């Protein structure tokens, strides 16, 4: 413990009973008015995704601005952006659990939900990017088909299919396992017969017996141990999609660590973007305290510096490689027609987070909220820079071209935000946004969570 | 459900827990599942478990609002078997994942691409790794559920009115009727001496 006094992970005066009542009240009380508005807007945005998908199935991927040489455009930018956002959820729930960081307790549940919904949004892009999804089934999944064909297992794109689908499955299981004791709590608190039945079925008869908890704790720790290398592998494999190719700007060994750091960076930014309004709207400031926001700000600062190092090494290696194509790519990335995006990226991802060095900034909720949104934008720009500026001027000047996203590129993006936020609003309405049973272990007067390992 | 219970819950000695006369005298009433007591705090519960064990009872269960590490040892459940299932799942996943790629790329449809060996095992590692994690993770979750006897929508303890506080701030200890030492009246009176409140019978 440092000499500087840190804010507590939970406001003083809470007991297991009051924690239980307060968090379950968020779910069991009447739906607040703002929820209908927020969910309505998100749900309408999601319809845009459905319309765009239908249109794409009829017309084909020519609907988007992609062409040769830029065959990967905003669709893949969105995919990498969403997958990256998901990473903070697993980091908070798995890695911080293994490191016994008790402050994670009040944010892990909705960070995990965020992971799940972000992976769902990401999945739409890779699926629709294949153009003909019904054919993608046998390119991508090894099932015995009448043509006797198998996928190419040596391709990073195949590794990606396995990594992302494993990640989606394990994240869903992790999230559900974490929910089981809290679903039992809601079953016991719910006054409505429909709630009792629904939560009762989902809780599967959880009783909180010593045997239940023991197996549960062991399973949670093992899941955390499995999810930790998994989360690192996912964005590593995503980076292989690029770095195994020989395109200048993609073919770099720094990619795996730099992608993983960027994923955590954007994920924490998204957790902050979501948790700041959430704690305010539901009055959960006692549970998601300034300590949480400050810690997340510090993680963002650290991972932001790793990402900045990645940008610097990319520039250095372009020069140091002595390779003319690499050097041209870097010059074109900074000074070329898309140069302004590169400068916007540096402003968002490298310069803005430096404000987090200041204690005053880390103590200001409004400033943190703005910075988190700026970082979200910056990370989207980063993927745009990596994908588009590397492709649009490659080895042969005769094939050079400019890439402009069409309105359908944007409708897919807005639609995926709609999908994400619709799921998020359904989640915060019907399931506990904070892990109730883990908060009980903290509220019982064990603020560092040493006695109980806590779940996932 | 009973099918699963028969296969997956640990058996006590045959004959134990059946209604009727018991060795050493006394009758076990039909439909009596156990006797439960409520405690206000975890130290009181753990102490009660120790006393119950010292008294000679072996088949009991404690219910708490959050995990308490020492409780499992105190109650004598023994180590969890989840890790073994996870190990088996991981091995099956890893071998299966590699086997799938080997079979498809070497045996079923070998393709010579630029003279690379059909068994390019280094390129097979990421998928092998993902399959290992996938099956180990699924084993952890299903193993936990099966070993806990879940899903089990009904359990006699849900018939106890105050039991819903077990998911809030109360701690419960139940001695099951199938304990060889269980005697309808004696066990009830013994539980009243443990320092808990609301001692009551749990009906099947």
Can you tell me about this structure?
The complex is a heterodimer of chains A (456) and B (204). Chain A has 456 residues and is mainly alpha-helical. Helices cover 71% and strands 0% of the residues of chain A. Chain A has one domain (16-443): Formate dehydrogenase/DMSO reductase fold. Residues 446-456 of chain A have low confidence and may be disordered. Chain B starts with a helix and ends with a strand. In chain B, helix 2 runs parallel beside helix 3 and helix 4 runs antiparallel to helix 5. In chain B, strand 1 (20-21) and strand 2 (27-28) form a beta hairpin. Chains A and B meet through helix 1, helix 6, helix 8 and helix 16 of A and strand 4, helix 3, helix 4 and helix 5 of B.
Topology (elements, then pairings):
The complex is a heterodimer of chains A (456) and B (204).
Chain A: H1 16-28, H2 33-59, H3 74-98, H4 105-129, H5 133-140, H6 156-189, H7 193-203, H8 210-243, H9 255-281, H10 290-320, H11 324-335, H12 339-351, H13 359-362, H14 365-391, H15 407-430, H16 436-443
Chain B: H1 2-8, E1 20-21, E2 27-28, E3 32-39, H2 42-55, E4 60-63, H3 69-75, H4 82-108, H5 121-147, E5 171-176, H6 184-192, E6 197-203
Antiparallel strand pairs in B: 1-2, 3-5, 3-6, 4-5
Helix pairs in contact in B: 2-3, 4-5
């Amino acid at each position: 413990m440092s000499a500087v006094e840190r804010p507590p992970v939970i406001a003083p005066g809470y007991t297991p009973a009051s924690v239980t009542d307060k968090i379950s009240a968020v779910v069991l009380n009447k739906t607040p008015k703002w929820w209908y508005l927020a969910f309505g807007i998100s749900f309408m945005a999601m319809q845009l995704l459905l319309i765009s998908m239908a249109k794409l199935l009829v017309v084909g991927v020519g609907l988007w601005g992609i062409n040769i040489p830029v065959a990967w455009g905003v669709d893949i930018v969105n995919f990498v952006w969403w997958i990256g956002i998901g990473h903070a959820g697993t980091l908070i729930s798995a890695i911080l659990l293994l490191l016994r960081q008790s402050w994670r307790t009040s944010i892990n549940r909705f960070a995990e939900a965020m992971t799940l919904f972000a992976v769902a949004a990401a999945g739409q892009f890779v699926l629709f990017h294949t153009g003909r999804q019904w054919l993608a089934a046998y390119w991508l999944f090894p099932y015995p088909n009448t043509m006797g064909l198998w996928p190419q297992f040596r391709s990073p794109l195949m590794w990606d299919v396995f990594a992302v689908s494993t990640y989606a499955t394990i994240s869903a299981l992790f999230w559900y396992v974490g929910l089981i004791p809290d679903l039992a709590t809601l079953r016991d608190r719910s006054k409505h017969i429909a709630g009792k039945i629904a939560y009762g079925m989902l809780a599967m008869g959880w009783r909180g017996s010593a045997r239940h908890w023991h197996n549960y704790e062991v399973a949670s720790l093992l899941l955390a141990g499995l999810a930790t290398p998994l989360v690192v592998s996912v964005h590593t494999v995503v980076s292989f999609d690029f770095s195994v190719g020989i395109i200048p700007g993609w073919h770099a060994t720094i990619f795996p660590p730099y992608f993983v750091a960027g994923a955590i960076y954007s994920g924490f930014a998204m957790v902050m973007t979501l948790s700041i309004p959430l704690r305010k709207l539901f009055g959960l400031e006692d549970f998601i305290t300034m300590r949480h926001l400050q810690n997340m700000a510090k993680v963002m600062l650290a991972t932001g510096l790793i990402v900045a190092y990645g940008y610097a090494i990319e520039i250095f290696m372009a020069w140091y490689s002595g390779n003319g194509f690499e050097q041209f790519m870097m010059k074109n990335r900074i000074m070329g027609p898309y140069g302004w995006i590169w400068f916007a990226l540096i402003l968002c991802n490298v310069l803005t987070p430096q404000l987090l060095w200041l204690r005053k900034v880390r103590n200001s909720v409004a400033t943190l909220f703005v910075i988190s949104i700026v970082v979200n934008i910056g990370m989207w720009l980063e993927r745009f820079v990596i994908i588009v500026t590397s492709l649009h001027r490659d080895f042969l000047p005769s094939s050079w071209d400019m890439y402009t996203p069409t309105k359908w590129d944007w409708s897919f993006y807005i639609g995926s935000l709609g999908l994400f936020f619709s799921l998020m609003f359904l989640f915060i309405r019907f399931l506990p946004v904070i892990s109730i049973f883990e908060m009980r272990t903290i509220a019982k007067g064990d603020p560092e969570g040493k006695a109980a390992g806590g779940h996932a | 459900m009973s099918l699963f219970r028969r296969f997956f819950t640990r058996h006590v000695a045959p004959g134990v827990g059946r209604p009727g006369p018991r060795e050493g005298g006394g009758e076990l009433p039909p439909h009596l599942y156990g006797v439960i007591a409520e405690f206000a705090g975890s130290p009181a519960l753990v102490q009660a478990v120790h006393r119950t064990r010292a008294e000679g009872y072996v088949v009991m269960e404690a219910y708490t609002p959050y995990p308490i590490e020492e409780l499992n040892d105190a109650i004598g459940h023994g180590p969890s078997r989840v890790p073994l299932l996870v190990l088996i799942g991981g091995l099956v996943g890893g071998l299966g994942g590699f086997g799938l790629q080997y079979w498809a790329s070497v045996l079923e449809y070998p393709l010579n691409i630029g003279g690379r060996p059909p068994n390019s095992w280094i390129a097979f590692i990421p998928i092998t790794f993902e399959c290992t994690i996938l099956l180990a993770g699924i084993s952890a979750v299903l193993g936990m559920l099966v070993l806990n006897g879940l899903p089990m929508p009904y359990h006699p303890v849900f018939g106890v009115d105050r039991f819903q506080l077990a998911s809030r701030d109360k701690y419960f200890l139940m001695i099951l009727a199938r304990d060889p030492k269980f005697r309808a009246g004696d066990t009830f009176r013994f539980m009243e001496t443990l320092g808990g409140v609301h001692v009551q019978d749990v009906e099947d």
